[in-house]
Backbone:
């Protein structure tokens, strides 16, 4: 009787070990597949952006993509080089920062809004300081911006004041950066203006525009 119990126990332990080992392999394979897809996506985005620079036309990173590269964000002090995608939907933000269609075109007068997730592409924003510089490269030009202000707002009742005669870059992400769960209403805003040479009039007309939450 004891022998049978021991045999049964050994078989049960063997089955449990095999199941645990198989589960571990499956989890490792899943994690590796996700990471491989992320790496491949970034390579495709980089290639499509280079094509955009070469012929000045739009190139989707893959045939079924509902977004495409519109700019490249560079922050040399923090080792940041990110492809900015058209639109700020969840599909776009899964692969990189997204430019909001409701804001001004990139590197043009008005307020350009670019958003990204706080725990991935815009994680570096928590380290950015006043007077830090960043660059936005488009098909036609590269402009250097200098950070001049920060703001934490509630997206449920915040209204963005847009200056149509001034060129402002607004980087937006969720807040706080170390939040355990996602889906909160707080947003962290980083404001930047182009680095100017010589004198330029800053007289502008204000108008209201609804804030697009990320």
Residues:
């Amino acid at each position: 009787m004891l022998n049978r119990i021991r045999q049964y126990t050994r078989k049960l332990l063997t089955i449990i070990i095999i199941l645990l080992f198989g589960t571990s392999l499956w989890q490792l394979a899943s994690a590796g597949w996700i990471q491989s897809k992320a790496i491949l996506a970034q390579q495709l985005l980089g290639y499509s952006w280079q094509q955009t620079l070469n012929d000045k036309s739009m190139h989707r990173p893959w045939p079924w993509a509902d977004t495409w590269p519109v700019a490249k964000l560079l922050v040399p002090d923090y080792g940041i080089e990110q492809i900015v995608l058209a639109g700020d939907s969840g599909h776009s933000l899964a692969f990189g920062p997204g430019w909001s269609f409701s804001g001004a075109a990139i590197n043009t007068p008005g307020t350009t809004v670019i958003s990204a997730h706080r725990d991935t592409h815009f994680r570096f924003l928590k380290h950015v300081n006043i007077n830090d510089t960043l660059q936005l490269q488009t098909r036609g030009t590269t402009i250097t911006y200098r950070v001049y202000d920060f703001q934490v707002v509630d997206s449920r009742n915040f209204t963005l004041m847009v200056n149509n005669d001034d060129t402002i870059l607004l980087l937006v992400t969720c807040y706080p950066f170390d939040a355990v769960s996602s889906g909160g209403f707080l947003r962290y805003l980083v404001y930047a203006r182009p680095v100017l040479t010589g004198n330029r009039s800053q007289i502008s007309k204000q108008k209201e525009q609804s804030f697009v939450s990320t």
Summary: Residues 87 and 99 are 5 Å apart (CA to CA).
